Amino acid sequence: METSRSPSPQFAPQKLTDKPPLLIQDESSTRKEEPSVPAPVSLATNSTYYSTSAPKAELLIKMKDLQEQQEPEEDSGSDLDHDLSVKKQELIESIGRKLHVLREARESLLEDIQANSALGDEVEAIAKDVCKPNEFDKFRMFIGDLDKVVNLLLSLSGRLARVENALNNLDDSTSPGDRQSLLEKQRVLVQQHEDAKELKENLDRRERVVFDILASYLSDESLADYEHFVKMKSALIIEQRELEDKIHLGEEQLKCLLDSLQPERGK
Fold it and tell me: Spans of biased composition, class Polar residues (predicted)?
């Protein structure tokens, strides 16, 4: 069984020096073409910034800039307010369309995950019949730990990237306490990330051991199915996390825009 999707896992923290796109990717993009989760933008950090997602913060900045551009022309305020509302409404409609595409992609991805899981069940049933009990235990434990280690690395990479972005954007008004708190979080997460990478290296060694065991029993076709299952299991976990992050980003941006329109609609 072959598939065109075979992305390689990337577990290093995101590089946050480049300014990311404001909004989620265009709906014409496929999952394979989607970039990693956008890195947050520069923003002066205070005690509340770290609890606000960077994509939402960037959207707030853009909206604030739009409003400030209108201030020198207050005499025509009603027209400018209307123009700003129109721009916000256009953004709302655009994000809504993109969210629809991403949610459809999520449904398709879930089907791929289910199909790969079914393939894994077939391989497991064959392995159980032909392997010795201790060999089959190694197979089962490896497959079970694969999910845990990949998800752990993804989680730690994302958290570390957010902390490092917050540190990079501290300004002179940041209190020593806030700075020290972020540095401590960074120190802990760096160590946890290194520990998780060691777990992944150990898992890779176990994968080779399990492959050698199965190669002694399985046909070439069944062995190829096993390799495909393991490769796609990791890739699909990563792709699912990226899709969920993009959907969450879009929903957050949409809520921010809708909330900003409420006072205007109440006028």
Answer: 1-11
